């Protein structure tokens, strides 16, 4: 077994799953009784996902099957192997880095700027989702299709659920309906 290739796969999949959990934790952070726990979970899991994603990329420099150059790894769409899908992974990781760094400096940059930057988590996750699904070795395996499909639906439904819930909370009460 090629341990570098195995490490690339494990780190990529684990990073993606942790990122998905972090995104779900961020979306569901509005659940009143679990707010503090979800915030801590969301932040820590997101940081670990970034670290593992970075290690996933780093190991690609040493892969014997399809080694990446430093340029191909760091510059989106510059890879000789699947440039678009590789670029999705690179951009997704850069966006995640922006989300995490701006979170660390929220008090400095202000809540409004932080919130705008934090919404980059969605395109980051979606790019990494597409990267893993379409470039990953397992992408055509039934279990991988089920994982990518179910995680996509989980994020979609959690987003819809929280969006609808917030709209209901912010909806003004009609004075006529109170009688």
Automatic annotation (TrEMBL):
Domain of life: Bacteria
Domain Ferric oxidoreductase residues, every copy: 12-127
Location(s) in or outside the cell: Membrane
GO CC, alphabetical: membrane
Topological type in the membrane: Multi-pass membrane protein
A Pfam family recorded for this sequence: Ferric_reduct
Keywords: Membrane, Transmembrane, Transmembrane helix
Presence of the UniProt keyword Transcription in the record: no
Protein known as: Ferric oxidoreductase domain-containing protein
């Amino acid at each position: 077994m090629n341990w570098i290739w195995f490490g690339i796969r494990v780190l990529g999949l684990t990073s993606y799953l942790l990122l998905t959990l972090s995104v779900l934790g961020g979306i569901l952070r509005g659940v009143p009784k679990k707010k503090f726990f979800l915030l801590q979970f969301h932040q820590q899991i997101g940081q670990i996902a970034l670290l593992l994603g970075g290690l996933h990329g780093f190991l690609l420099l040493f892969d014997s099957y399809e080694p990446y150059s430093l340029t191909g790894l760091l510059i989106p769409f510059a890879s000789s192997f699947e440039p678009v899908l590789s670029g999705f992974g690179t951009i997704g990781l850069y966006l995640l880095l922006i989300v995490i760094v701006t979170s660390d400096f929220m008090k400095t940059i202000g809540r409004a700027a932080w919130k705008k930057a934090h919404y980059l988590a969605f395109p980051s996750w979606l790019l990494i989702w597409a990267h893993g699904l379409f470039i990953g070795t397992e992408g055509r395996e039934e279990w991988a299709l089920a994982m990518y499909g179910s995680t996509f639906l989980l994020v979609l439904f959690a987003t819809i659920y929280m969006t609808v819930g917030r709209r209901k909370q912010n909806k003004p009460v009609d004075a006529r309906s109170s009688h």
